[in-house]
Design a protein that fits this description.
The structure is a homohexamer of 189-residue chains. Chain A has 10 helices and no strands. Chain A has helices at residues 2-7, 17-21, 31-51, 58-67, 72-75, 82-86, 88-103, 109-121, 125-147, 169-187. Chain A starts with a helix and ends with a helix. In chain A, helix 4 (58-67) packs across helix 8 (109-121) and helix 9 packs parallel to helix 10 (169-187). By secondary structure, chain A is mainly alpha-helical. The longest helix of chain A is centred in the C-terminal third of the chain and has 23 residues, at 125-147. Chain A is 65% helix and 0% strand. At the A-B interface, helix 1, helix 3, helix 4, helix 9 and helix 10 of A face helix 1, helix 3, helix 4, helix 9 and helix 10 of B.
Chain lengths: 189, 189, 189, 189, 189, 189
């Protein structure tokens, strides 16, 4: 457990590259801070889904959220554009290998790897909810930056209202409502 | 949900005051980044407990971890010493009121309040594991700072090996092992 | 004297929480930097008052300004909203106790405590002028941030032009003119 | 008054260059934060002098302390070494001219200029006490950095114990005691 | 060579003072980062000049660009306004002396000094192209800051389109086109 | 040219990931600042080589140095460890594609691509000297951090004295002397 405890500390320092490349100052948002936002958002989304009758394993949602960016201690936080150069498959393989190396020797390494793989392939409802939470926390952070004076973040909002994150039914509604509320709030600035 | 999504963004910027007061530069660790460390650490601890036969609700552990510092969006992160001046009870009441105001109107506000109260009173095993994770992530962060050259953090290590966080049996062992591993690692620097 | 010399260094690192919670980056304004602004502003206000015939002890004004936030080395800089949760009386008592602990053993500890208490109770003209300087430096800092691109600081300007800081006569005029000049300058942006 | 209120805000952002050139991170200490340290230190020194029977105008001490670096809004904070290239006289003339431009049109501009000139020429006891406070706050900041892990600041301590800042009698004793306490504290690290 | 290798590291930390004085956060742009921008811009300009038939020594352009701010390891980065107080001649003499001290004992110290002097006096086409690159990188950085939300940088754009940097013919065209493209891009924001 | 002028600005903000992952604060060294260090170091190395009779095209050295990390505006600065997960070939192909996209449409795009490819394959003496400069600036930066108090950077020094960067003869000697001087300087700390 010690090695993971120490390695996760790196995420507290590692900047989310996307903001830096758009002119936000160093330290604007760490990967760890974003992961916290994703996990808390995922909890709120999943609880709302459950309240509307969707069968969702909230504990699994939270596990996936906490693990989904952990490999960035070794790969760094690569900007979106980099995927165009490496290819989606190469990126996924590299992230999976790094994740496995981090967890090697931990109790539950196999279970953690299964959760990570689920996220990468968006196989389960829980994985898709985390992906939605990842997108929603990104928008909420972008809105917070914009409210504080940032400009040039418009591209993050393009098409946001139409994304369905491969969700259906009430889960889809919950996510769309959250995104719509953010888009609406932004339009009032 | 919108108001919580936006309010949590503040924790990504808010510095952990304890480090700043000891000379770490601004931005050293945000409250959100620490909360991420606590949640991931709590998951590792709880899973290890479960593997050793302890009956623990890991989902509840993760919920408590994600919520336990949320009120700092309104109270700020007060240094340890401040408790000597306000008193433990006044602090708890203020944090509870701020937390309730944040969640007011959310689906599940009552359930979230119950989890927060559990943490404050350390009523459940799950709450105590989160408190242990809070202490362990603090030590891991201190060690990471020390490895990078920081000095003057010795007080955080005093008595660390003896704290039992009101835990018993295998849960106590799991936590003690994690703390001992950190203390041991530090002694090799 | 040594302990005070060392303890005051903490204020150079401690961020003013209000800015951070509104999206300014870590390091935007330290408590020490603000205290400098308050002291220099208070000198300008008091000298202007004296030039208009107000009997004011400028030395006392400067002493109060330099001491008024010193206790934050132990309490941290709590955001405005926190007062709603702790109550004004609890806050004042805590700050007074922290201040006394810092100065304990110093030559003049009793005199410093009297100045601090004066500020907290706004008993003297000098204390009220420092409170006005505190508000004016806040507005000047807000305007500087806004000129550099910050948004979302409008709440600091609400009602600013009407505040009289319990001042009367020429002192009140001097303060109102300074605030009006800032409000006017802002309206030209 | 408006122009001075706005211009002083720059000192809150301006880094003390000496630290940056020795590897401290940006934002380590602003000129405004240092000026606060100097002013508070000067008050403590002057009050101690008065308690020992030295006739000193503490109000004048505080005025000089608050004004002594104000011109850096226009000249920047030049490192020590630069004086070797510009010459002491050229530096003083430039700083004086910048200071006068800042204050031009203020009530009391002439009085402020007289205080600034006093500091530059160390003509009065009050000016010399501020210079001593300037040196003492520098050492206290260096010690705080060293306690937090900084290295390479040894040159600031060379000869520190022997400097007398052109002071005599009890004033000299007060300053020497403060410096000696810092040097002693450092030797215990 | 060792002393230069170590001394140049300081430029990576040293902030460009002009941005800080206009409200950008510490760390917005280092002198080293700016020098990189100038050198790359100078290469692009010089290559374009060569493509249009201008006889230009690109290697000399790059050498001048890399050396032109090196003396700031000792003088710091002084704001524009400071020149009004020291005088252009005093500034040039100080920078020249600092530069010579840095390079003293290096292989090629005389050649580097000649390049530095060329830049200061804008004697050659190559020196003038570097000065143009210095101005163009400043505008590109200003535009990047403005796109990210900064305000209050308008003064840098005043008269920009008319500056000819003492260039003639195709070199002048190349520089004017680059500036015009930046001005045009800015007007679309 | 406009698009390159704007895109290069991103490198002034982008942190060198290796430092961040080892605990240095955000903003410790930007990619642009490092590239400046590499270019200036490469100039010193190449001039020393020429002085010892090595036939080297210094202009080509400087061009390669300025271009060698430019693609990081799109790929980010990936930590060393990431190469273990993507593979050296995939990394090179991605970097090459990103570089070509940045330069597409520029005068001299083909020539710039040739220089970039030269660096990636270390085909020429000039490319190898830039690689050596890249390693030497890394060590000089590490030493500067260590002198300022950083710890945990020992791995960068392992085997440093033995690396020959595929250089021979006098060029190899020049590089070895520079590295040896850094190693020696470090051992005196």
């Amino acid at each position: 457990m010690l090695s993971v405890l120490l390695e996760l500390q790196r995420l507290k320092r590692l900047d989310r590259t996307g903001w830096v490349l758009r002119g936000l100052p160093p330290g604007a948002e760490s990967v760890a801070a974003h992961s916290y936002g994703v996990a808390l958002t995922a909890m709120l989304l999943a609880d709302e889904c459950a309240a509307r009758g969707v069968g969702v394993d909230v504990g699994r949602v939270l596990r996936i959220a906490l693990l989904h960016d952990l490999q960035e201690t070794r790969t760094g936080d690569m900007p979106r554009t980099v995927a165009d150069y490496y290819g989606k498959e190469a990126r996924r393989a590299a992230e999976r290998a790094a994740f496995d190396d981090i967890m090697r020797g931990s109790t539950g390494a196999a279970a953690y790897a299964e959760l990570h793989e689920d996220y990468e392939s968006r196989a389960s409802l829980e994985a898709r909810l985390v992906k939605a939470a990842d997108g929603i926390d990104l928008l909420a952070q972008a809105l917070a930056f914009e409210r504080a004076g940032s400009r040039g973040l418009g591209e993050f909002w393009e098409g946001a209202a139409e994304r369905d994150f491969q969700l259906e039914g009430a889960a889809r509604e919950v996510v769309r409502e959250a995104v719509a509320a953010l888009v609406d709030e932004r339009s009032r600035q």
